Every structure is written in C-alpha cells, then in structure tokens.
Amino acid sequence: MNPEPSTPSSEKFHQAGIGFFILNIMYVGLVYYFLPPFNLGLLEGIGYTALALALFGSLSYFIYKGSRKLTVLLMAIYTARAVVSIYTLATEQAFVAVPYVLPGLVITVYVLGRPLWDWP
C-alpha cells in the first residue's frame, strides 16, 4: 500500500494545518499574557488551556487532511475577526491585546487562503 503522492494543493493544506495550530498557540499565549487576570484557579486555567489546545489541534488536523469546507469556514471567521479588530483599533475601542494579536490573525487568514485559492 503506497501513500498518495503529494500534490501542491495537499502540501499547502499540510502547511495550513501546521501554521493554523502554531499561530493559535501563539494567540492563546498573547491573550493570557495581555488580558487582565480572571482569578482562575490553577486547575481551571489548565482546563481552559487544554480545551483550547484540543479545539485548535482537532481543527488543525482536519485542515491538514484537506477539509476544504472547514478551511473556508475558518477563513471567513478569521477574516471577520481581523476586520472587527482593525475597526476597534481605528475607533480606539480595542482591548489591550488587539495590537499584538492582529498580525497573527492576518497571517492566519493568509495561511488559510493559500490552499483554497492557490496563493503563493
């Protein structure tokens, strides 16, 4: 049983899955660092972090495997998040973390768009 040969599109989905996971881990770290404390206990903080890792890990797995519909849905969500973040920055209503996480959101939109529309 030989595995399927890699196509340029499948390689881009693989890169998108890995990039999506890494960028979201960075996002969670930045949000935890810049947002004010929520007075969570140690176990609650670990639980929320584990939930975020499981969610991002499972979404990244399906992107890696080439799920086009999921990638389109996530691209739409992350594009909307980036647009709203830019709007809140322009109107000076943004949270403290927004200037730091916005570049990651924009890069995530690009990473998700690469396999969908064959961007370079």
Q: Could you explain how this protein is built, in words?
A:
By secondary structure, the protein is mainly alpha-helical. The chain has one domain. It is 78% helix and 0% strand. The mean pLDDT is 90.
Radius of gyration: 16 Å
Structural class: mainly alpha
Oligomer: single chain
The termini sit apart by 32 Å
Keyphrases for this structure?
120 residues, 78% helix
Q: What is the structure about, briefly put?
A:
By secondary structure, the chain is mainly α. The protein has four helices and no strands.
Helix/strand layout:
Blueprint: H1 8-34, H2 42-64, H3 68-90, H4 98-117
Helix pairs in contact: 1-2, 1-4, 3-4
